[in-house]
Amino acid sequence: MTHRNVWEAETTLPPADHKPAELTLDYCIKCNICVTACPVAAVTDLFPGPKYEAPQAGRFRQADQATPDHSVDYCSGCRVCNMVCPTGVRIAEINARARVPLVAQGHVQPLTRLRNNMIARSELLGQLGQPLAPLANGVLGNKSARWLMEKAMGIAPAAPLPKFSRQKFSSWLKRHPRPGNATRKVVYFHGCSTEYYEPRVGKAAIHVLEANGFEVLVPEQNCCGLPLLSNGEFPAATSYHANNVRKLVDYVKQGYVIVGTSTSCTLTLKEEAPELLDYYTDDARLVAANTFDFNEFLLLLYESGELQVDGLRPIPMTLPYHPPCQYRAHRIGRPAVELLALIPELTIVESEAACCGIAGTYGFKKEKYDIAMAVGQPLFEFVQQANAPLAVCDSETCRWQITHGSGIPAVHPVELLAAAYGFPVEAPLAGLV
Amino acid sequence: MKSHGDLLIIGAGLAGLMAGWQAAAQGMKVRVVAKGWGATHWLSGCVDVLGYYPLDNARPVTNPAGTLPHLIAAQPQHPYALVGPQKLAAALAALQTLCAEADYPLHGSLDHNWLLPSAVGTFRPTCLAPETMIAGDLSHPASMLIVGFRQLRDFYPNLVADNLSQQGIPAGYVTLDLPSLQKRGFNTPVTLARMFEDTLFRSEVVAKLQPLVRDVERVGFPAVLGLHDARTVKEALEARLRRPVFEIPSLTPSIAGIRLHNILLAAIKQHGGQVFDGMEALAADSDAGRITAVYTEASARRRAHRYDHYLLATGGILGGGLRTDYQGQIREVVFDLPVSAPAGRLNWFRRDFMDREGHPIYQSGLQVDAQFRPVAANGTHQAVYQNLYAAGTTLAHCEVIRERSFEGVALATGYAAIEALRSA
To answer: Which of A74, A388, B193, B212 would bridge with A47, disulfide CB 3.0–4.6 Å?
Structure first.
């Protein structure tokens, strides 16, 4: 079978008659391997372990019935349980869906729900905060303000809330000259973090794609909705996902694929939103099948000899790398490690830590901050022991948490690739390469 | 398309991990993919080689090395016959060296089976046992106290002690009710294993036990004495209690099994090998009698793995490598290889659940040639694919549970398959 593009071979449409996650609980043989691997249960008994809620209590409930055991709120959604389950139970998804009736039927305190809704609307926060970046950053960095935020809203005062960028990624892009020699096109999904907090990641991605002959299309897009999914706010998440599908599907129909540097956004487009929301429209399945993690995509290019790797500049450093849970949940191995290995003189030391703890919005919450920090402790120690000026990680919230816990700044792998291609880089990479 | 490397191993039980370690240590570029963790977390953490032979013999094998030639002569298709006693010994020796280097020695040899207490107080024959378990040796009748924990619901010290006492081993029991455990809503073997690594928790245990152990010669615990540093935990307890301490493996997850898993995983990675969980192998491509790619399930798509050689180590019916259905079909799940199995569902089982002859379905599995390559069903004994090998309990003509040969078959075939493919 010949394919027009290398990535088509990897593109299969998810089936329309997808089974709800709950039906997989019948595969559970009660071996407790998930409980063994759960990074949250390892540090607190507020969460007994993934098995207890999902496959165990789950079989006694109707789909829309709220679980009487509210400990499911302490599942961070890291998906380590899914990865280790020998029988294929979709444990994390069952847990995520178990939160929905709790929220919908009013079992979550109104103030907590308001807090969850605020921190889960990253796009709205960005739209409100970024134009006032200096002021907003001042407030977020102010101890009294953070004290107030804790008391009024339950946001942990020490939580690593990101700083708004002075310039949005999309504003930079408008003035970015397009190269005239593009031979192919690709769609870039930047996600909220690149747009409002870390445009440097998006710039690096655009540079790397353009260096490989792509014209990069950046259509209008929304938050992927993952923070809302994690907080059990499914109706709101559905409208975000529906909007994204609507805005992206025409590009897919024209034959372009979507790549994203935010690994949790791409996982949401691919799998989490359709699966959690039972959102298997033809268009949603098309978008899912044609969305790629950035490094997954580059590695496919590399494997088919289509990635420009000649003349990469050496980066003589040894850096610690953490593959985030959301990245491992793509089940694609470690494309970032394999790509970074192409950079001369760069040595990557891979973390074996289960999770950084932050899990999106989890570690921002007052009642969960200490758990998140305890979960991340082995990773922080690993990063510190590497004794390097930088850490490398594919997910934005994980980078913020790593820096918060270890004191070491963190970059996305694409920033190192951009540097190796000779493009200008920004702090924290600037000055180091 | 570029090749990803020399060897893709499907399955991360003992066979897959042993093979992955051997291949990586010998300089091959190896990737191990697994649907999830499995056998290592279910097994005892000891290495059973041959516990019973002939299978209807009520007395356990005392000397596996002496009994193996009889098995090999009687069952020339048994995995042990394909491996041969020398490679079996080499595989065990390799694992013993690796575990000793990890400060977790496995004691024993092929000339001798230990008899150690099981979680129900029976005599359990096994060939290699971790240092944390050997003081439970039942070949001498030294008295013992079996310690349980009120908050650990997966271990019943009274059951162990009563059964051992009836069989001539003087054993008492105690169920500790410790404040540190009362605080926690849930206690699993993993929680306890982590707590035992903490000096304060050990002191709490020792303080309760000291007055109770005066009249006993040794003390048995469920196998929860530390996840990473079990030897230190055991020695610290022995120093305080002034008598030998041993572990008894209990229900899943098996802490002693996880220790072996961790040691093998670290060895593979140390030699540059990759191990990925959450990657279920679904299908494969072949061309001219060779496997050209294996596909694993991934988010929204499948991921291709292109290697020079492939090793199937997905286990049997329990491990998920063989799937049975209500129509009486039995299938190998990745390559749809021919499976040796009794024809028709009626012939899978004998009438009695506990029949001494066992059930024929448990002998089912893949038939392989001398190089451990699965062979065609037509009786020609020709390899189905030139570069596809199989190891572990996915192989036919053994009954690893009844034989008490699970770990031995897995380790030996994993080891031998790598030797075979390297000489191919």
So the answer is: A74
